[in-house]
Amino acid sequence: MIKQSQQIIVVIGPTASGKSDFAVELALQHNGEIISADSRQVFKGLDIGTGKIRDEEMKGVMHHMLSVYNLTEEVSVARYACDTYPVLHDILSRNKTPIICGGTGQYVDALIYNQIIPKVEPNKKLREKLEKLSTEELVADLSVSDPSRLATIDTHNRPRLIRALEIIEELGSVPKHNKPELIYSTTIYLMNPTRELLRTRITERLEKRLKNGMIEEVQSLIQDGYTSTAMKKFGLEYTVIGEYLEKKLSYEEMKEKLITKSMQYAKRQQTWNKKYIPNAKIIEVKE
Question: Rounded to whole angstroms, how far apart are CA atoms 231 and 239?
């Protein structure tokens, strides 16, 4: 039985805000181990494009839930939570501090709040049908099927929209949650860079990833049979670079689109993270 007296730490914030490095420093200070709460970093093979922390950057701190699943596997919030709970409990049992770090709000919520997560198996036929629809059509379908769920979802996030419709197909609606209550005694740190700094960091990060082989990483996925359309489920970096490799974009157009889309994604993350503010320690990122 988990007790409120057990301590955990959460580090959240938009992409490129320095969550990983900050979490490592906290782990060194608090005898901690880090649990990644990132819906893409859980996959093997998505390393450079997702900004997966490298061994030398870990500074000897144990990291969990990185490169756990094959790309062909379907990973829902429920599956991630089910696989991660034992990891979190094991860290606590060894009198160490779990530090949950990530940019996927639903993954974070699944670990820290007392809530019911619908365990609905993937519906391959339905997903194939929904993948053919535009994002606008998915939003329209959800507005009819479950408007209350639409009000709480990121309407730009196709995987989340499709998952919501999949749950509705099985259960009739997405289960409503009571007001979430923290399971543990939780300290939340919210990284808060300015928009100007965020754009600078996103741009510098992109240049670094391109030099480190991000295009080659996407090429390997294409060789495995993935098109830019199929790579949408891996995130914007893979989709946009896929479009460049398919000669739909020039190199400069690819870079500008990645920066613009990353800024839009960061804004959506910041909107989601506002709900944590009453309980969070705000970290003003200066450089």
Answer: 5
